[in-house]
Amino acid sequence: MKKLKKVLLVLVYLVLLVVIGVFLFFNSLKPDYAGKKTLHGLQSVVNVYYDNYGIPHIYAETETDALKALGYVHAQDRLWQMELLRRVAKGRLSEVFGEDLVKTDKFFLSLGIDDHSAETVANLDRQSEMAVLSQAYLDGVNEFIEKGPTPIEFYLTGLDKEPFTIEDVYNAVGYMAFSFAMAHKTDPLLTSMRDKLGEEYLKDLAISSDTSTVWIKNYHKTEMDSLGSDITASVSEALEKLPIPQFIGSNSWVIAPEKTKNGKVIFANDPHIGFAQPSVWYEAHVNTPSYEKYGYHLAGVPFPLLAHNRDVAYGLTMFENDDIDFYYEETNPSDSTQYKTAEGWKKFEYVSKTIKVKDGEDVEFTYSKTQHGPVLNHIAEQISGERPVAMSWIYTREKNEVLNGLFGISHATNIDEFKSALPNIHAPGLNVMYGDAQGNVAWWATAKLYQMPDSLSTKFILDGASGKEEPLRYLDFSENPSAINPPWHYVYSANNQPDSIAGMLYPGYYLPEDRAKRIVQLLDAKDDWDKESASEMILDVTSSVNPGLITELIKLFNVIPLSNEQLVQIDSLQNWDGHYSLKSTNPTLYHRCEYFMVKNTMEDELGTEQFNQFLATHLFKRQIAWGARMEKGKWWDNINTTDKVETRQDIVLKSFADAWNSLVEDFGPDPNQWTWEKVHTLEHQHPIGQVESLRKYFNVGPFPVNGTREVINNLAFPYDSTGYYKVNSGPSTRRIIDFSDIENSISILPTGQSGNPFSKHYKDQAEMYVRGEFRKMMMNTEEIKKSAASVLTFKSQ
């Protein structure tokens, strides 16, 4: 018995030692928010004051020192996110996640982002201030890689840490330039639809600009002189597997002093980006004697894309311009290595790449290029066919000065300096929003725009052989859409159609007018805006379009065959103001009806695969209101029925019946149980969280959330047959900057500042975000130092 007791005691000690060892190991992986560290090459001491939400306030004597410290603290909270983002353009995701990502790697390698970055870096002036500061940031990142703890994700994937280079910075920006990807989802699909169904069907799609919707107005003080569907499928498959979020849309408005209570500019911005964990932005406040910015940083990028100080504020939304064109190429029938151009036959260029695959053999592949760009055929297995389709993308065709542009806007001290940096941002197309302490408000669309021949739609695959469907000229930046201090005293953007550019409506993948209409309604109605009312507006969940659409369609109902429960719900819908709250049932019934209406209208012609592809486009979002108001058209008829020709009324009534039956099946016969909170939920997903046993440790949520697609608080979701609306994109931050009280400007992140699951700041803002709360963006030095939760001090070795 004594022996057994001794054995048991030894076992207990061993288990205790293992538990202690595991605890100490995991504890060692936490970020260090306090203490003293050495950082090679610093000119003087740098102090980093962390506030209660883990946001670093970096105080240094020089900007080079500050950027070096920024790189270190950014990496200790977000190294895994940085690692994934830099791997996308290089085609190195399969190295982490295995063969499931091979198609994604092939696709991104064929875009040429990495090759374009390498070419840009080869010609970079390493002595320029932009390059010196970028390298200082990278030095900080790399010192953390060398000295800091390894994030848990590297252990779980077996990945080795590698130093970062300036090419990685350009590749991160290149991914951002591509990430909204609407041309890939739209143009080949529309071409396939046209070839399959004919022009008559396409005339009833919201492809072109709708002159009846709300546009963003320009203001200048002076006058200024079968394969297509396959491509869409392959691109959709590649993008669906991305372990990092995509940029989607955004809202922003900047209110001039004439419309504010305190006579100073108020700036609001909430970029809409795919939700993920960690969330996309890393906040940091950098302060030196000659430079200060409170900024939001993309993983691995030294200069903030959103920022403010006491003098200026700026933010971004997606312009949604069309900067990608597809071309059919004609292969020489007697020499398959040549393709036809207006000048004669030219040789295809061939590019070979190798993809390393975790737990698998390397994958080698070769793709061809024409004068337009990479040929997409055979990059993915499902794209076969003899007719090559090449992709022309402005980002890789033009000299890359985007990082210079980001450096320029982050260092501008006034509106003129700010504007002068914008032409460097040739892609992605961005609406850049601006406000300052002097009372200026402005909006510029930044992109390298070009003019195509009249009557040519770039929403279809073009003819690459004739030379007749090429850009006629590139527009000067002065011709881009913009508004500076307009007489209506505000500027805004909601990714909607901008007014005419150089005498033409510029083609794009603009979102419907819903958010824009609501923003304009609210801004026009009030002349005493303050921080509180602006923060209420950014949380607005009322649709400006859906109630009118319901009023239009309910006219088609025959009430006689409806049950009492159905009559009650229809009456409720008819009186609905479009407000999306958690306990409301109107949104649930409305969206079920909307899905079935689009499905019953279009799936019979398109087939299931193309219909689901269509649901993933911005065109679908524009089509909802446009199509529902269409009294007659070929789409209404169900081609699978032979005994009748269906009308709009037939489709509306069938869709209501289908929606009702599906809700009864999912939630029971009592409509009071069909609340929005049961179907509209948000879960922030980490790539490792896809493993079910690890989901609760890495993912954040799920939470029931109010809001919906295309309201100001744009908590959007994809439509599918499930009838559940799992939110996949929305405000990546909500910022309100009031120049009358700059030190008390407010913001929020969707989850937390840190991407390290062992950090207390991994998800400490998640419930605040869902509740619509804010926290202060601290700028007062005395308050920052006095209230700091911890201080991390860096000294040179």
UniProtKB/TrEMBL annotation:
<dbReference type="InterPro" id="IPR043146">
    <property type="entry name" value="Penicillin_amidase_N_B-knob"/>
</dbReference>
<keyword id="KW-0812">Transmembrane</keyword>
<dbReference type="InterPro" id="IPR029055">
    <property type="entry name" value="Ntn_hydrolases_N"/>
</dbReference>
<keyword id="KW-0865">Zymogen</keyword>
<keyword id="KW-0378">Hydrolase</keyword>
<keyword id="KW-1133">Transmembrane helix</keyword>
<comment type="similarity">
    <text>Belongs to the peptidase S45 family.</text>
</comment>
<dbReference type="InterPro" id="IPR023343">
    <property type="entry name" value="Penicillin_amidase_dom1"/>
</dbReference>
<dbReference type="InterPro" id="IPR002692">
    <property type="entry name" value="S45"/>
</dbReference>
<dbReference type="InterPro" id="IPR014395">
    <property type="entry name" value="Pen/GL7ACA/AHL_acylase"/>
</dbReference>
<keyword id="KW-0472">Membrane</keyword>
<dbReference type="InterPro" id="IPR043147">
    <property type="entry name" value="Penicillin_amidase_A-knob"/>
</dbReference>
<dbReference type="Pfam" id="PF01804">
    <property type="entry name" value="Penicil_amidase"/>
</dbReference>
<feature type="transmembrane region" description="Helical">
    <location>
        <begin position="7"/>
        <end position="26"/>
    </location>
</feature>
<protein>
    <submittedName>
        <fullName>Penicillin acylase family protein</fullName>
    </submittedName>
</protein>
